[in-house]
Amino acid sequence: EGGRVGADTAALVEQRVVSEGKKADGGRFSPYSTKPAPAHLYFGRSRNAGAEQKVRAKAKARQPISYRDFRQINGLNVGQKNFQFTGRMWQGFGVKSVRSVRPGVVEVEIGGKTLRSALLLIKHSEREGIPLSKPSQRELEIVKNGIAARFKAIIERNV
Fold first, then answer.
1. Model-level pTM?
2. What are phi and psi of 68, to 5 degrees?
3. For 41-49, what is the mean pLDDT?
4. 143, 17, 28, 74 alpha-carbon torsion, rounded to 10°
5. Partner residues linked to 97 by β-bridges
6. 35-73 in b/e burial notation, b at 16+ Cβ within 10 A?
7. Can you tell me the distance from the alpha carbon of 67 to that of 78, in angstroms, rounded to the nearest whole number?
8. Which has the closest alpha carbon to 91: 103, 101, 100, 83?
9. Could you read off the pLDDT of 85-142 as tens digits, one per residue?
10. What is the rounded CA–CA span in Å between residue 147 and residue 130?
11. For residue 117, how many other CB atoms are within 10 A of its CB?
């Protein structure tokens, strides 16, 4: 049951961050950086050949690119930060551990299951000043209601 609860919680956190661009408290994340950087720093990081050509053209013309510009060149959202570029960080996000604390009480840790995902989550969390993997009160309530409904169904089946 703990693994299922963790997976549900992780899915809700990912949904909120990626789809809504919101912190656990409902606020918005900081905007994507508009600080100019040499375009050559983005070589080989584009999502497709067309975007890579645009980056290289900017570098050739000695035009700087901000991370926000780089996302736009790659056809990605720049209106709200969602910490998704390739999707690999979120693919590696989920249940890290399930531990029985005492009878009837289980501790579930969600976060980066892969080294890359864990490091990115740490870096982004530090930059934002809050843990990205923190569930909101609403998400915890949804998970709590799900647990109650599953236990009720088990009891009804066995009575």
1. 0.84
2. -60, -45
3. 96
4. -170
5. 109
6. eeeebeebeeebeeeebbebbbebbeeeeebebbbbbbb
7. 10
8. 83
9. 999 999 999 999 999 888 888 899 999 999 999 999 999 999 999 999 999 999 999 9
10. 27
11. 19
Q: How many residues does the chain have?
A: 159
Question: Residue holding tokens 């570098």?
Answer: 59
Q: Can you read off the two tokens belonging to residue 102? A: 């005492």
